[in-house]
Specification:
Length: 433
Amino acid sequence: MRMVDIIEKKRDGQALSTAEIQFVIENYTAGSIPDYQVSALLMAIFYQDMTDDEITALTQAMATSGETIDLSAIEGIKVDKHSTGGVGDTTTLILAPLVAACGVPVAKMSGRGLGHTGGTLDKLEAIPGFKVELSKEEFIQQVNTLKVSVIGQSGNLAPADKKLYALRDVTATVDSIPLIASSIMSKKIAAGADAIVLDVTIGEGAFMKNLEDAKRLAKTMVRIGKLANRATMAIISDMSEPLGEAIGNSLEVYEAIQCLQGKGPKDLMELVYVLGSQMVVLGQKSPDLATARQMLTENLANGTALKIFKEFVAAQGGDVRYVEEPEKLLTAQYQFEFKAAKTGIIQKMVANEIGVAAMLLGAGRKTKEDVIDPAVGIVLHKKVGDTVTAGESLLTIYANQENIAETERLLFENIIIGKDAVEPVLIHDIITA
Ligand code: URA
Ligand code: CA
């Protein structure tokens, strides 16, 4: 097989065979096909698209390009959850103990964040002492005893995706539905879960800008999951404004604890219940979504989920005093109120730009090498659709620096106050196999 023939075939709009796709992925991972040829192929895929069979073959080839995790030593149906990206998305911290409380084992491998705000690992590490590096044996044992563990992704999971993603990033080929779908699903399949719940987000800064594209991505991933024998479903959720109230690592842990204490913001809790119900049903701990939701509500109200969160933090070396007294997490040196410039109704709070405003304070990374400051971030007091009065505080900025001019400028430009009534929609659609 010659790479140049494969590029030509895709360039001309023909479907590649499974053998051709395997050839590309194996040899690219091994270093025997150069970046420039794969770049050309990626651009051809970008323009010519791929069939379901091609996307499935690509996903399988990437999933098996490195280590695959065997979770069969964990009893029960392991259900994973993945979001395509959000600002202030604290759901995993709440869902993991809450779903575990319903009897579904949560064996989760998470990533760090780049840009915007931190990833789940960065948030957990905001709890002093918390360790995200466990051996595979420790990880499996913890899930069997506690029903929950969240650790960092192992070094060699889907290495083909790592290489391809880096190449896509510098060749303007990230925004391709077959490439995004195969990238996400290859990692989920390699990570060993039996069932997968996907949260496909829509918004200006999200991968998917509109409902039509989001549906196509969701349907593609659900189909790949099915063909790979993993029960998969997707919800399409709104990410045009930040989720919940807190954006920033310690602040989001604080928010998660508040949620587990029954004091969470409405939108964040709704997303938790929608995703959680699907996880409990896929984990076969409930026959239907309504019963699942009731189980989740009860395990939150009776304190079981919070108790499991505390045990989970303790098991991974975290200092549980921060869970018992979450105010200890609020350590930023300065707090600034950001006030409404006029009276009206909030039309927009552009999620990704507010994420950048938090990143500039140190809550996220501009480059992989940047160090996150867990203490800093933003807490919203108002959300889209709320009425505000000139001079009223819209949000509090938690900072470890006095100069926050750039953050304030971004907030000013991206929080739009107007006259129209706005009714935000959180869940746009649900896609099942
Ligand atoms: N997330 C991924 O893991 N891969 C993509 O291609 C896009 C989002
Ligand atoms: Ca949040």
